[in-house]
Amino acid sequence: MTPAIFAENLGRTYKDKVALEGLNLEIPRGEVYGLLGPNGAGKSTTVRILCTLLLPTSGRAMVAGYDIVDHPTEVRLRIGAALQATAIDGLQTGREMLSLQAQLYNVKPAVAKKRIAELEALIDLGSDFDKRVSTYSGGMKRRLDIATAILHRPPVLFLDEPTTGLDPRSRQQMWDEVRRLNEQLGVTILLTTQYLEEADFLAHRLGIINDGRLVAEGSPLELKRTVRDDIVVANIKGDAREAEGPLAAIRGVKSVSALGERIEARVTDGAQAIGHVAIAIQQAGLELADITLRTPTLDDVFMELTGGHITEDEHEPVH
Ligand SMILES: Nc1ncnc2c1ncn2[C@@H]1O[C@H](COP(=O)(O)OP(=O)(O)OP(=O)(O)O)[C@@H](O)[C@H]1O
Ligand SMILES: [Mg+2]
Question: Looking at ligand 1, which atom is closest to the CA of residue 194?
Fold first, then answer.
């Protein structure tokens, strides 16, 4: 069976800026594939090329069995896309937007009515559904975007940062919907995200992308297993940087990073190291608030591959 999405040596250069380079992808039908990477990594560039909105400057790609450059119309008929920056016509209401989408894709009126009613419950706009889109908040527009992308039941769906800007409750609803679309309707989904938790929760397989290149690929669990270390996390009453030196000196500690009152030490054997870490902190004259052990997260994987964090503000442990 041909894969739902296939890319070979795909690349895009803007003048002298290489936004994407040498991307190879093979996403089988029915998979949820996540592209995880920081700002500017090349996620939107990839999605826009695969949706036929941007021409690649090298390589080739097939989506739903058609070449994106030679047969863009065939591709477009078979995909749905909720992109990062969409030009929503603010003068229409949410309901009108969905009706228009149904007409564009020749969805029969009776079917469209039923689907719009279902989507109305999902996007949860209440009476705002019949108000002009120009009055919507960012999160409301986002939810409408996604409803628009799935109304015609495309076999392949692209979601570029689907939950950025959503509150936790809306994010959870969106996750449930992505899962439902995939599990019940068999939709193949390529989504991009900067959220580790989202990638971990939704994606069957992940590609980690940084600076225009795919640097790792695998299931979330496989990727996390590539980091063989444990992480000791200590909270200190005071500046955690004061503990950096003493912790780095402990045998078995591979690296130390401090942020505010929190310090993390990567160690080969967590159970063995945790006591030594606690003692070293006390011997340095610092007061320990708590100390725990955690297994590697996708951020640790990213850190190992690139030396940086995916997002500056997200350091919550995810397992
Ligand atoms: N039209 C353009 N002209 C020049 N450079 C561009 C253009 N569009 C994107 N870029 C550059 O290409 C790189 C990749 O951008 P892209 O939008 O694909 O990243 P991203 O992973 O989607 O980032 P974000 O998380 O911020 O959405 C960035 O360095 C960006 O500045
Ligand atoms: Mg983007």
Answer: 25
